[in-house]
């Protein structure tokens, strides 16, 4: 694709995005920014949630990962569905009953200020790093397709990217996000379906031939029960899916802010169940696309790229297919990446304002000014982090950041699990030490697991171990009941 075609596609998409954002965010006050005034229709949120769970990285990576992992990712997606049911029927009623703006307020009510701030800071670090990495990878793609051909520097790319994300979220917050996420979902589904159609047409496959090609391929294998050391082993992926979605959706302000925007907890439950089942079929479409891409590469005698993430971009933006395929790829990539970054920026603004600055009790006008300043600050920090990634320009750094982000959700999961499933009170001031020590223990265990456990590799279950260590640490902090010694005084008349 030519740089001009890519630029026109992006401009057209953002024109539509800003229109939707402006209409949805009109007259949005602080409550509208934080929780959408709790007036969102559950079916709209459900449709929006399908796209909100898919980032630009997922859009590019899932089709490519078929080459090494087949359809094993669906094992994890099945775990996602179970995890969503747990969130819907345990966490959602609790959060609605407490009328929370930030879900980390629960920790303050349950344990104290140290727990509250620990949860908020762990979320802040993980979400900032995760969002920055996702945008960085998209900035790299745009640098190659647009900015480099026009001899424009990477820092300008980052500045424009972050500015665009800030612009379409500053007005309406969650209220705007729900409708822009709905637009993103529509673009994603249409993009992947049409890409499948055009690639299948080039392979001379009708619908029956398409189904047979995918089902007969070795790459379409879903379940793996034979080798426990394999990262694709069913119970590793399924259980990891359950706990990952609880931690990264149910205990993540970014995701829960949409669910908390529904009119009541029952509508929120309908939204979560519907969106989780729908997500399964959307992920299936991406995996089907992956099989077709590898089939096309083999049929054309092409060499698949060494990095699986490059497969979809390489095929979609080349001259193998009509230009519409490249346009669809750009729309899908941009819609998924920018929407994910926008929701992360809104969640970071909410969490920092409410949890770290404790500004919820301020007057409406004062809170509005503070929230806008925080929103700008979060965008600036995100831009700086992206630019630093660009300076390092090292894929291993990206992998390390993703690993670090996954470590930070373990303590949050452990804290909420202890609070919900026990009634014990703990010494709140020591919680930060437990939250820091648990990931350190996990790192030591993961680094030595092969040597200590006969070749066993810790992978997706790391989050569970992290939460387990946090839970054990909290058990050691349980307050002992004070024994009151009553002295009997004899009264001598």
UniProtKB/TrEMBL annotation:
<feature type="transmembrane region" description="Helical">
    <location>
        <begin position="404"/>
        <end position="421"/>
    </location>
</feature>
<feature type="transmembrane region" description="Helical">
    <location>
        <begin position="272"/>
        <end position="297"/>
    </location>
</feature>
<dbReference type="InterPro" id="IPR001734">
    <property type="entry name" value="Na/solute_symporter"/>
</dbReference>
<comment type="similarity">
    <text>Belongs to the sodium:solute symporter (SSF) (TC 2.A.21) family.</text>
</comment>
<feature type="transmembrane region" description="Helical">
    <location>
        <begin position="44"/>
        <end position="66"/>
    </location>
</feature>
<keyword id="KW-0812">Transmembrane</keyword>
<feature type="transmembrane region" description="Helical">
    <location>
        <begin position="374"/>
        <end position="392"/>
    </location>
</feature>
<feature type="transmembrane region" description="Helical">
    <location>
        <begin position="120"/>
        <end position="144"/>
    </location>
</feature>
<dbReference type="InterPro" id="IPR051163">
    <property type="entry name" value="Sodium:Solute_Symporter_SSF"/>
</dbReference>
<feature type="transmembrane region" description="Helical">
    <location>
        <begin position="320"/>
        <end position="353"/>
    </location>
</feature>
<keyword id="KW-0739">Sodium transport</keyword>
<feature type="transmembrane region" description="Helical">
    <location>
        <begin position="6"/>
        <end position="24"/>
    </location>
</feature>
<feature type="transmembrane region" description="Helical">
    <location>
        <begin position="458"/>
        <end position="478"/>
    </location>
</feature>
<feature type="transmembrane region" description="Helical">
    <location>
        <begin position="430"/>
        <end position="446"/>
    </location>
</feature>
<dbReference type="GO" id="GO:0006814">
    <property type="term" value="P:sodium ion transport"/>
</dbReference>
<dbReference type="Pfam" id="PF00474">
    <property type="entry name" value="SSF"/>
</dbReference>
<dbReference type="InterPro" id="IPR038377">
    <property type="entry name" value="Na/Glc_symporter_sf"/>
</dbReference>
<keyword id="KW-0406">Ion transport</keyword>
<protein>
    <submittedName>
        <fullName>Solute:sodium symporter (SSS) family transporter</fullName>
    </submittedName>
</protein>
<dbReference type="GO" id="GO:0005886">
    <property type="term" value="C:plasma membrane"/>
</dbReference>
<dbReference type="GO" id="GO:0015293">
    <property type="term" value="F:symporter activity"/>
</dbReference>
<feature type="transmembrane region" description="Helical">
    <location>
        <begin position="72"/>
        <end position="96"/>
    </location>
</feature>
<keyword id="KW-0915">Sodium</keyword>
<feature type="transmembrane region" description="Helical">
    <location>
        <begin position="150"/>
        <end position="170"/>
    </location>
</feature>
<feature type="transmembrane region" description="Helical">
    <location>
        <begin position="182"/>
        <end position="200"/>
    </location>
</feature>
<keyword id="KW-0472">Membrane</keyword>
<feature type="transmembrane region" description="Helical">
    <location>
        <begin position="233"/>
        <end position="251"/>
    </location>
</feature>
<keyword id="KW-1133">Transmembrane helix</keyword>
<keyword id="KW-0813">Transport</keyword>
<keyword id="KW-1003">Cell membrane</keyword>
């Amino acid at each position: 694709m030519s740089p001009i075609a890519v630029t026109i596609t992006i401009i057209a998409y953002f024109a539509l995005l800003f229109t939707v954002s402006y209409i949805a965010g009109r007259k949005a006050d602080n409550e509208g920014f934080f929780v959408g005034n709790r007036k969102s229709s559950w079916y709209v949120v459900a449709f929006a949630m399908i796209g909100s769970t898919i980032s630009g990285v997922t859009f590019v990576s899932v089709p490519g990962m078929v080459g090494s992992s087949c359809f094993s990712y669906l094992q994890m997606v099945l775990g996602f569905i179970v995890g969503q049911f747990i969130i819907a029927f345990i966490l959602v009623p609790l959060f609605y009953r407490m009328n929370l703006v930030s879900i980390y307020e629960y920790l303050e009510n349950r344990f104290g200020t140290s727990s509250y701030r620990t949860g908020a800071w762990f979320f802040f670090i993980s979400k900032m790093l995760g969002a920055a990495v996702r945008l960085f990878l998209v900035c790299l793609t745009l640098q190659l397709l647009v900015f480099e051909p026009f001899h424009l520097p990477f820092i300008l790319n980052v500045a424009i990217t972050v500015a665009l994300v800030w612009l379409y979220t500053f007005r309406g917050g969650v209220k705007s996000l729900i409708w822009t996420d709905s637009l993103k979902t529509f673009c994603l589904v249409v993009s992947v379906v049409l890409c499948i159609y055009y690639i299948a047409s080039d392979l001379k496959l009708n619908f029956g031939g398409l189904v047979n090609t995918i089902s007969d391929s070795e790459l379409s294998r879903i379940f793996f029960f034979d080798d426990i050391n394999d990262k694709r082993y069913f119970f590793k992926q399924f259980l990891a899916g359950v706990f990952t979605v609880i931690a990264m959706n149910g205990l993540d302000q970014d995701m829960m802010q949409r669910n908390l925007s529904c009119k009541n907890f029952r509508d929120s439950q309908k939204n979560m169940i519907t969106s989780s089942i729908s997500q399964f079929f959307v992920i299936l479409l991406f995996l089907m696309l992956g099989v077709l891409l590898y089939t096309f590469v083999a049929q054309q005698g092409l060499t698949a790229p060494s990095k699986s993430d490059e497969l979809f971009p390489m095929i979609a933006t080349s001259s193998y297919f009509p230009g519409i395929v490249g346009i669809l790829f750009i729309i899908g990539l941009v819609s998924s990446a920018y929407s994910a970054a926008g929701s992360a920026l809104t969640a970071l603004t909410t969490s920092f304002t409410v949890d770290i600055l404790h500004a919820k009790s301020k007057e409406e006008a004062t809170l509005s000014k503070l929230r806008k300043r925080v929103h700008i600050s979060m965008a600036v920090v995100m831009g700086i982090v992206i630019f630093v990634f660009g300076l390092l320009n090292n894929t291993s750094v990206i992998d390390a950041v993703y690993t670090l982000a996954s470590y930070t959700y373990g303590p949050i999961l452990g804290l909420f699990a202890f609070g919900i499933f026990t009634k014990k009170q703990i010494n709140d001031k020591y919680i930060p030490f437990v939250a820091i020590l648990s990931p350190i223990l996990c790192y030591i265990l993961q680094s030595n697991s092969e040597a200590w456990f006969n070749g066993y590799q810790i992978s997706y279950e790391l989050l569970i171990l992290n939460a387990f260590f946090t839970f054990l640490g909290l058990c050691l902090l349980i307050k002992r009941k004070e024994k009151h010694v009553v002295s009997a005084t004899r009264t001598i008349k």
